[in-house]
Every structure is written in structure tokens, then in C-alpha cells.
């Protein structure tokens, strides 16, 4: 496993990392609030993302997630970062997954009015540079956990 799920901090890996934030928000909107990140593995070739969900996604759900992510890419949203206490981040409604790893101060990345997550970064500055987002595979990872593989073109 890579530190924070990233193979390196190359431009392509950073693009995939930012697209993972968009995808997580889209997954929550399409599948429900129960969805949370369970892990990721991001290389310059693809994004692999594990999330909590009890059943296989339908082709319609996959398309909805892709369309939502691509819409946010087309909108060329600004990616903003703020540093604050974990308590403040929670008050602002920022999502965070691995809370035990957070220190006193956290970075909160906000993408337009769409996504707000606690994360160590790094991220791109505008979603418009991401290109086209495509889910190439959705499968079971373990009990109650699904895995998506996606690419940008």
C-alpha cells in the first residue's frame, strides 16, 4: 500500500487523486450516505478505489456516477484548501475517513460546492484539467466493500 494511497506526486497521480474526491461524492449521491472510502491505490495509469456498499452497482448507477463526475470536470471548479482543527472541519461538514491518522490541524479540500473532505493532498487547482472520467471496472473487494477502477483520458 502506498502512503495515503498515492504511488507518487506526479501530475497524473494528483489528477486521479482529485478525481477520487469527485467520485466519492458522486457515489454518495447515487448510492446513499452509507458509502465511505475503505481504501485507494492510485498510480499514473489508473485510480483504484474501495468503498462500503452491500451490492453490485447497476450499469445505470455507474453511468450516473460517471456523468456527475464529468459534469463537475466540465464546470472547471476551483479546488480550495484550508487548514483548520479537526473539530472545525467536522462543523463545516467535511468528510473524513481515517480519523485516527489526523493530527491537531487538518487540511480540508473543497471542490466548488460539490465536495468537501479532510485530506493530506496534493490536488490540482481546477477540475477542468482532468479530462474525461470513465469507470472501467466495478467489482467486489470483500464483504460489504466494492472496488472501482477508473481512468482519465
Give descriptors for this structure:
globular, three-stranded antiparallel sheet, alpha+beta, 3 helices, four-stranded antiparallel sheet, 153 residues, single chain
Task: Explain the layout of strands and helices.
Elements: H1 11-31, E1 37-42, E2 47-52, H2 59-74, E3 79-85, H3 86-91, E4 105-111, E5 115-118, E6 133-142, E7 145-152
Antiparallel strand pairs: 1-2, 2-7, 3-4, 4-5, 6-7
Helix pairs in contact: 1-2
Describe this structure in words.
With 153 residues, this protein is of the alpha+beta class. The protein is built from 3 helices and 7 strands, in the order H-E-E-H-E-H-E-E-E-E. A 4-stranded antiparallel sheet has the order 1-2-7-6, with helices on one face. Strands 3-4-5 form a 3-stranded antiparallel sheet. Helix 1 packs across helix 2 (59-74). The longest helix is centred in the first third of the chain and has 21 residues, at 11-31. The two termini are 25 Å apart.
Q: Kindly, what is the distance between the CA atoms of the first and last residues, rounded to a whole number of angstroms?
A: 25 Å
What is the string of SSEs from the N terminus onward? HEEHEHEEEE
The major pleated sheet works out as: 4 strands, antiparallel
Can you count the helices? 3
Radius of gyration: 14 Å
Shape: globular
Mean pLDDT: 93
Q: pLDDT under 50 segments (min length 5)?
A: none
Strand order of the largest sheet: 1-2-7-6
Structural class, from helix and strand content? alpha+beta
- Count of distinct strands: 7
Helix content: 25-40%
Strand content: 25-35%
